[in-house]
Structure formats: structure tokens, C-alpha cells
């Protein structure tokens, strides 16, 4: 069975600091990888996705993620965070074979302070 | 706005009761997924329907059931409710292309008292 690990439960950063959130998955086959963001009281929104090709993917709001196949990792990065990035971030994986359910990590809560 | 709608937004009910949550996917999407989000379990997949047929089951209790109708909307039925069923229930829809990019609805917050 697939599983997703997000190493950081809660991250606190000052505005303009750089962000890196770790995500590792376990699955031997080809996968689709996603990062979702959930702002307080809101639904999940897709930040970025990886299906194939260039392992460095860019998403919305200045976020990017790098897929490292040898490490089964898909870490999320942003060079300079803003207060408005305060949210919960979820890494998710699905098998790359048609419509299959997403397996989510436990999430990382990001608090950005002024 | 993802284009996925869910009703109701909030639901407060008592233990032992039965409720129905409704989800309408984005126009053209055939797949509907249901997920439960709770503080202790995180986001857990419950069930997947594709064009009216059940495709996969996750950690869904026997007290829970779902269906997808010909107009592609889906309903999640929760019965004999327990305090532990209190959670956010999300549905998501995805396109038929197989890339599995899922778009989430706003969720239904269920509180069981």
C-alpha cells in the first residue's frame, strides 16, 4: 500500500524566509504527485502537480517542488514566504494508472509571522 | 472556486441518526471521490465512483454508503452516527484523462452530538 510521510508537523517562519517542506512516499511503481494547500476554513486547492518529465515543477503563488525519484521525495519550496502563505500543506500521491484515489500525508501547518 | 459543489456546508445531528451529504462534480467530470478529514486520522479516502459505478473503497465503515446518480452527482449516506464520525467530508472530482488531478469541493462539516 502507498503511504506518504510529511516530516514537519508545524513550521513557523518569518516573512521573507525561505521554505522547504519535506514529503516522502512509498510506492514502487509510477506515481502522480501533488501538493495541496488548505487555507484556514477553506477547501483544498491544488498548488502543483507532477506527472512526468522535468522533475522541477512550478505551481501557483511562487511555489515549486522537486521530484527526486531515487529518494522517493517530492519536497515543496518557496524562496520567500508571505504572511498570506499561512495554511496547511498536504502532499499526496496516486498511482499513475487512470483515476485512482489520492493518498495524503498528515499535513504540515505553516505559520508565517511578520 | 473549483467548480465542485457540496451541500450542506454544516450539519449538526445526534448520535444514532442518519444524514446524507451531496456532491456535484465539475461539469464533464465522471469521477467522484469522497474523503474524510479528521484531526486524528488526517485526510482519508472513503470511496470512488466513476460514471455511476463504484471503483474503489478505502477506509469506509459499513455504516457508510454512497452512490452516483445518472446526472453524476453523488451522495454519501452516513447512518447510526457516532461521536467519532464528526469530521469534514470532502468530495473531489477528476477528469477522464487519467492524470488524476482532483478538484475538491468546499466540504461538509459534520458534528455529531
Break the fold down into its secondary structure elements and pairings:
The complex is a heterodimer of chains A (114) and B (113).
Chain A: E1 3-5, E2 10-14, E3 19-21, E4 24-26, E5 31-38, E6 44-50, E7 56-58, E8 64-68, E9 73-78, E10 87-95, E11 103-104, E12 108-113
Chain B: E1 5-7, E2 10-13, E3 19-24, E4 31-38, E5 42-50, E6 53-57, E7 64-68, E8 74-78, E9 87-94, E10 102-104, E11 108-112
Parallel strand pairs in B: 2-11
Antiparallel strand pairs in B: 1-3, 3-8, 4-5, 4-9, 5-6, 7-8, 9-10, 9-11
What this model shows, in words?
The complex is a heterodimer of chains A (114) and B (113). Chain A is an all-beta fold. Chain A contains no helices and twelve strands. Chain A has strands at residues 3-5, 10-14, 19-21, 24-26, 31-38, 44-50, 56-58, 64-68, 73-78, 87-95, 103-104, 108-113. In chain A, the strands form three sheets. In chain A, strands 2, 5, 6, 10, 11 and 12 form a six-stranded mixed beta sheet that branches. Chain B has 113 residues and is mostly beta strands. Helix content of chain B is 0%, strand content 54%. Chain B is built from no helices and eleven strands. In chain B, strands 2, 4, 5, 6, 9, 10 and 11 form a seven-stranded mixed beta sheet that branches. In chain B, strands 1-3-8-7 form a four-stranded antiparallel beta sheet, with no helix packed on it. Chain B is globular, with a radius of gyration of 13 Å. The mean pLDDT of chain B is 94. The chains are: A mainly beta (114), B mainly beta (113). At the A-B interface, strand 5, strand 6 and strand 11 of A face strand 4, strand 5, strand 9 and strand 10 of B.
Amino acid at each position: 500500500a502507498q503511504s506518504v510521510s510529511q516530516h514537519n508537523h508545524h513550521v513557523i517562519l518569518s516573512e521573507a524566509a525561505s521554505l522547504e517542506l519535506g514529503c516522502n512516499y512509498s510506492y514502487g511503481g509510477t506515481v502522480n504527485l501533488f501538493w495541496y494547500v488548505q487555507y484556514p476554513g477553506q477547501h483544498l486547492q491544488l498548488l502543483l502537480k507532477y506527472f512526468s518529465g522535468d522533475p522541477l515543477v512550478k505551481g501557483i503563488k511562487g511555489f515549486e517542488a522537486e521530484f527526486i525519484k531515487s529518494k522517493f521525495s517530492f519536497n515543496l519550496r518557496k524562496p520567500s514566504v508571505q504572511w498570506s502563505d499561512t495554511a496547511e500543506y498536504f502532499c499526496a500521491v496516486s498511482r499513475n494508472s487512470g483515476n485512482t484515489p489520492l493518498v495524503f500525508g498528515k499535513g504540515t501547518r505553516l505559520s508565517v509571522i511578520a | 472556486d473549483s467548480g465542485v459543489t457540496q451541500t450542506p456546508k454544516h450539519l449538526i445531528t445526534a448520535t444514532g441518526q442518519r444524514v446524507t451529504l451531496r456532491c456535484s462534480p465539475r461539469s464533464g467530470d465522471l469521477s467522484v471521490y469522497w474523503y474524510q478529514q479528521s484531526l486524528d486520522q488526517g485526510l482519508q479516502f472513503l470511496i470512488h465512483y466513476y460514471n455511476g459505478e463504484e471503483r474503489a473503497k478505502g477506509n469506509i465503515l459499513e455504516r457508510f454508503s454512497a452512490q452516483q446518480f445518472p446526472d453524476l452527482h453523488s451522495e454519501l449516506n452516513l447512518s447510526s452516527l457516532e461521536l467519532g464520525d464528526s469530521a469534514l467530508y470532502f468530495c473531489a472530482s477528476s477528469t477522464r484523462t487519467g492524470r488524476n488531478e482532483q478538484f475538491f469541493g468546499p466540504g461538509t462539516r459534520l458534528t455529531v452530538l
